[in-house]
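Entry:
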Amino acid sequence: MTIQETTAEAPAGYHPARDETYYRLRADLEDFLYSEAELLDSRNFKAWLDLFTEDVKYFMPIRRNVKFGQHSDRENTRSGEGISWFDEDKWTLGKRVDQILTGVHYAEEPLSRVCHMVSNVQILTIRENENSQLEAEVRSRFLVYQNRVEYETYTFVGKRTDTLRLTEEGWRIARREIILDQNVLLAKNLTAFF
């Protein structure tokens, strides 16, 4: 049974069995995420932007220190409520890319040297959306190293949950939630993409 056949039986999404089809799909999704990281590291921002669907949601909450037992309800800010590091769509992502590519972005002139590492890729669910497109919810860990000018060095570590959609052009990112594993941002700015 293929993944597509199984999703038709469970439209709400399911946890895939660990079979040959699963491992083949996971390898494809890992390759996609590694290729995305390479586009960012090589500063190919326009091609990176093309990896997103038109209806993408790109979200990074601010994390708070909360009492024990309140983590699920209060630790992370919510999309559309209050403030967050990023709560963007494709248009705002495009404006950030355009700003960097002007060459006069005060925080990215000269451009930073950045290295993205992606690991621990897991497929959480697979489903068909309302347009009968295959979507995979994928969790991964990341480490982003950024070096600016001469001595400014920042390290960002965290988790991502992506909804990857299979389109006619291949896999595309329809949703990305980035959980940065620090409460206070130690970098002077937040110009890196995750």
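The chain has five helices and six strands.
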